[in-house]
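Pasting two entries for a bug report.
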Amino acid sequence: GGGWGGGTDVYSYTLYTTFFKMEIDRSNDGQRVFEGRARAQVTTDNMTQLVPDLIQAMFVNFPGHSGEDVEVKLTNDKKKRK
């Protein structure tokens, strides 16, 4: 005879997508001179913890390329830039 062996573990969690968007416009004519966004997918909605990491990621290699998205990987309270 045959049969099914072993057990099944099912895990569930909520995944949040959070981002920080920055736009810099020239004051004399309003022309946009820089636009960027840092984003992360995380399992916490603790913005007090997340916002500083997103802002810091935005300024790594600033100004970089306008319009570029920076993806931030947050693992065990440590961030890794991709």
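Entry 2 (this is the one that rendered wrong in the viewer):
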Amino acid sequence: MPNTTNAHTVAGMIARLHDPQYARWAAQIKATGGCRQPIHLRGHVLHVDQATGALLHRYSTSTEPDGVLRVPCKTRRASRCPSCAETYRADTYHLIRAGLAGGKGVPETVSAHPCLFVTLTAPSFGTVHTRRERDGKLLPCHPRRDAETCPHGRVMSCTARHGADEECLGEPLCPDCYDYSGSVFFNALAPELWRRFTLALRRHVAKLTGHSLKGLREELSIAFAKVAEYQRRGVVHFHAVIRLDGPEGPDSPPPAWATSDVLAQAVRHAHQAVTVTAPAVDSKPSVVLRWGAQLDVRPITLGGDLTDQAVAGYIAKYATKAAECVGTLDRRINATEDLAALPIREHPRRLIAECFRLGSLDGLADLRLAEWAHMLGFRGHFSTKSRHYSTTLGQIRTERADYRRNEETSTGRLPLFDEDTVLLISHWSYAGKGLSAGDAVLAAALTGSYVADHPTRLEPSHG
């Protein structure tokens, strides 16, 4: 079978290289930036003079290789397409950094506004294998001199010094003792816990400074930008940039009483104060969930210990990752699939099974646990920001599109039209996605991108 597959790949490469339209196909591939699973579009664009009705310019995919135009998939997941994920990471980096140092329409004076980098963790749902270091020295996992034996006969101790890539990291010492339902509920309710955290934060800032909430809004606004990260045990925690602005957002300075110390006090209070209640299941009472005991609060300063570049890079890195980092899959899992046959670790397998089990219970439909089983119950957006934090990803992408359009116009690849007098008529339809095995190898050679052992298959349109 491998020889047959290789022969098919080589045959596909030869056929593409001998195609009279190879140069145009290569140009399309380069334009996608090395996308692993480019989207195939069929359609046309017409530029019509509104006054006379004359056709000024026409583009149609009928003259393109294979009759389609290939465009990037634009996924944020590095596991699916490293090229598009890198673009997403870079855009997120600039979005976050603009809110710290200025740029992209944000004044540079924003760098003087009080700003904190906050990490909110999840509580414990059972003892798991972990890698611990202190002063550069690797420590035993969970050494216990008089370790207890759990009800399932396992000694709750581990003296191993785990390597950074060991598969056991994040695995429970006793899976039967681990609170899988609690872990799933925390992931599902983490977005609500974050929402309540932001509300409690504003209320406590108002209390500390002697304001009502209405009075606070007239003098101060609080901006957020956050990203969710999966820990190896399969629960999310949040990294957030929290900034104090004047009432007009980053364009206005905050009042003198709005300091980093005031913000830090409010963050610590909100971290302790907010809770969310998980539903009662299996004849057990409802459980109150809160943030984990670990809370990291650090000021962000230009040229300090924690710089704007470091924070922006850290958040942008995790914006391209999801639950696959835990060892699960980066696609939806159907309830009819055989979970035992999935190529994943046992711990995420149990979490996925718990999502399906809980999702089938009455009263839990709103959590959509079965639909988000591949995300271990978390269904929130991975990277979010408040409206006035900085620019948006959409604006960054629009700037890139405008730049490319101007470049094509200046080089003569596109005609120069007066947008006020020209009517644009376009029609597009989805025609599939992906690359054949041979095309994937050639695309990697053209763009310098990585080719997986099993390249994305070519998926045709289904009507």
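Dev reply: Rendering is fixed now. As a check, the viewer should reflect this: The chain has ten helices and 14 strands.
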